[in-house]
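Standup notes, protein team

Yesterday: finished cleaning the Oryza punctata set.
Today: PB1 domain-containing protein structure.
Blockers: none.

Input for PB1 domain-containing protein:
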Amino acid sequence: MAWNGTGERPDWFMDGMDPDSSFNLEIRIVSRNSRARWFSLNQGVDADRTQFMDLLDDLVDKYPHEYGDKISLFFFCTETKSHIPVCNDQDLLEMFAKHRARRTCLLTVAYHSPSSEPPVIPHWDSSSLKNCEPCTTPMHPFYCMSKLS
């Protein structure tokens, strides 16, 4: 749900959040041992206060993975229909900048073995999503900064 800071407040917007820097993260967790294709959740965040490692740590604390799994984070670009890796704070800031108009980011967290590629990441239904800046693939390697636990 897009929100521009005016009108009725969406469910994901928490008291005390700055409407100019708040975002809804629609998150899917995919894993090789999942009973379903993915697990979905929503999380409201303040882009000015959210750091990459803190976001990953928060997700891993709430939704644990198997011992030794690697964690990779991707956002879905509605324009190119591709999953762009998010590997550090700069990538996170770029993701928020690209989605400033609609205030919703589609994220996928992939839990996988360090010796394997991430599981197949299903595409998001983005037919209702508009107002997104053009996406570009980051210039760093694919597995630039994933978390190992």
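Follow-up from PR in the comments: The chain has one domain: 22-148.
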